[in-house]
Amino acid sequence: MSLPITAFYASLLGLCYLYLSLAVIAIRRKAQIGIGDGGNHDLMRISRVHANFNEYVPITLIMLACLESISHWDGVMHLGANALLFGRVLHAYGLRHHDGASWQRFVGMIMTFLSMLILAATNLFELHFLVV
Predict the structure, then answer these.
(1) pLDDT in tens, 106-117
(2) With contact defined as beta carbons under 8 Å apart, do 69 and 126 qualify?
């Protein structure tokens, strides 16, 4: 079974994750902190950006792969995956560059949640017709 839509977006999101990982490493090296955050504000912030990305992307990519395996709703898959990609990029930017709330964090989370909702609802819709 081929999952080209999932492969494309997983690859783009993987590159984003790699960038965030390298950003964490750069701050760790600069601050000479091997474990934990050492109370370093920049390291705490970028570690949270990295962790937040890791909290939402895997489950959403799983839902994308599931949908791609059971349906041909390419437009819906691209809509959900684009919302995830741009939502995570916006959220990471907002969290990295602003203390507290920012429009980037807000819009990024809304886009992430919409992505999850679209993919979950479409999966459930498709599964209903597979079972019936």
Answers:
(1) 999 999 999 999
(2) no
User: 47-81: per-residue pLDDT in tens?
Assistant: 999 999 999 999 999 999 999 999 999 999 999 99
How many helices and strands (H and E) does the chain possess? 4, 0
Nearest-10 Cα torsion for 17, 118, 96, 12 = 30
Domains of the chain plus CATH, in order, are: 4-131 (1.20.120.550)
For 25-29, the CB contacts below 8 A with 24+ separation are none
Q: Give the tokens for residue 112.
A: 């992430």
Tell me which residue of 25, 23, 21, 13 sits closest to 89, measured CA to CA: 13
State how far the Cα of 106 lies from the Cα of 28, in Å rounded to an integer: 28
How many Cβ atoms from other residues are within 10 Å of residue 127's Cβ?
14
The answer for residues whose C-beta is within 8 angstroms of residue 80's C-beta and 6 or more apart is 60, 63, 64, 67, 114, 115, 118, 119, 122
Residue 14 and residue 117: Cα distance in Å, rounded? 22
